[in-house]
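FIELD: query
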Amino acid sequence: METGAQRELPAKVPAKGDGTPDLRFWERRELVAQTARDVAAGRAGLPGWLPLQKDGRVDARRPVGRTFLTLCPGPVPTAHGLLLLFCVMF
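FIELD: result
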C-alpha cells in the first residue's frame, strides 16, 4: 500500500495554490471520489494532497476534505492510526 506522501495529483488535474484539487469541475470531484473508495477499500493510503488536522484526521473544514469524507463509503483511517499500526506490526 502506498503512503500519502508518495501519492501525488495526476498532471492533468489542476490544483489550487495549496496543492489540493480544484473541485469546480466534475472530473476533479470524481478523482476525489475514486481516491475515497480506494482508501476505504484498503487499496491506497491517505493521499498527500488531502488536508489533515494535527491529530491525523481528515480536515473537514476544507472543501476537499468535506468532499472526501462525504464520498468515502467506509471508515476513514487517520494518518497517525496507519503509522501506529505500522509501528506495532514491527
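FIELD: remark
Residues 36 and 72 are 5 Å apart (CA to CA).
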